[in-house]
Amino acid sequence: MKLSIVLSTQPARFQAATFKGDLETNLRCIAALGYEGVELAIRDPKLVDLDKLERLTRKFKLSVPAIGTGQAWGEEGLSFTDPDPQVRRAAIERIKSHIPGAIRFGAVIIIGLIRGIVKTGVDPVQGMDWLVEALQECSAAARPHGIRLALEPINRYETTLINDATQGLELIERVGADNFGLLLDTFHMNIEEADIEASIRQSGAHIFHFHVADSNRWYPGAGHLDFKSILNVLFASGYLGYVSGEFLPKPDADSSARQAIANLRKILSS
Ligand code: LER
Ligand code: MN
Predict the structure, then answer these.
(1) Are the CB atoms for 4 and 38 separated by under 8 Å?
(2) Residues of the chain predicted below pLDDT 70
(3) Other CB atoms within 10 Å distance of the CB of residue 54
(4) What is the pLDDT of residue 87?
(5) What is the predicted pLDDT for the residue at 11?
(6) How many CA atoms lie within 13 A of 97 on its CB side?
(7) Which is it for the CA torsion 146, 168, 185, 195, positive or negative?
(8) Mode of pairing for the β-strands spanning 2-8 and 37-41
């Protein structure tokens, strides 16, 4: 199992980015804890020095399996499904602007909340059409570079669009691009899926990235999810990517990251 953990490159309101703050200090800590990768949450690639990021991740021998993009929604309101065409265009261009960073690190680009929420007054069918068109454009721009996009089903309390794996698989059919797949997150799955293991089996080769948090969004082992069963099914489905920790920094970032890695390694070796 290859483990990574989410680190935000900018200050952000999103609480489950486990590490925030000084980049070098955090990367040193993540590597020292035994993680092999770091998932970078980047609001806008223009705000980060990719050369510096690459230098530091190399220094600490950390891979970057995925780039999170949701802060463009959380901090700026960019969305694929906003009624304002300028906002939708800005969201599409923002996702395309992650492609050079994704090439540099060999990372998957995550489509989380930048898909938006269908606002009151917007026809849900229209919202879904905007989403499909945006994803087709972004997937087509990424494909020649060998870059993949992973849409994350997110629970109903955060978005109206694509809450579970079945809806995600239907969306994959509509988008029709082989570099477009899913990011499954155990926190959201615990809320939305009837059977977490069955949904992982059903998603199979379409799983491009995987987030772990326990039922309470604390580190794995702090709630009541059965990670031994979940991860065994994930690996049996052929998944070879990173298992990425995205949980609340409770009681603090270091302790939660330390507990996560210890618990997951113990669970899988027992
Ligand atoms: C992001 O990966 C996520 O899981 C969402 O809850 C963001 O709000
Ligand atoms: Mn997630």
Answers:
(1) yes
(2) none
(3) 14
(4) 98
(5) 75
(6) 16
(7) negative
(8) parallel
CA angle 84, 88, 93 (to 5 degrees): 145
Place of tokens 């900018």: 10
Q: Model pTM?
A: 0.96
CA count, 13 A, side-chain hemisphere, 261: 19
Active site residues per annotation: 152, 246
Pocket flag, ligand 1, residue 164 (CB < 6 Å): no
Ligand 1 close to Cβ of residue 70 (< 6 A): yes
Alpha carbon of 233 to ligand 1 centroid (Å): 22
- Residue 248's region, left for phi above 0, alpha for psi from -120 to 50, else beta, is beta
Longest dimension (CA), the chain: 53
The alpha carbon of 229 is separated from its chain's Cα centroid by a whole number of angstroms, namely 21
Tell me, what's the pLDDT at 65? 98
Of 100, 117, 122, 118, give the one whose Cα is nearest residue 109. 100
Tell me the pLDDT tens digit for each residue of 186-244: 999 999 999 999 999 999 999 999 999 999 999 999 999 999 999 999 999 999 999 99
Alpha helices in the chain (DSSP H): 23-32, 50-59, 71-74, 85-96, 99-105, 124-142, 165-175, 186-192, 196-203, 227-236, 253-269
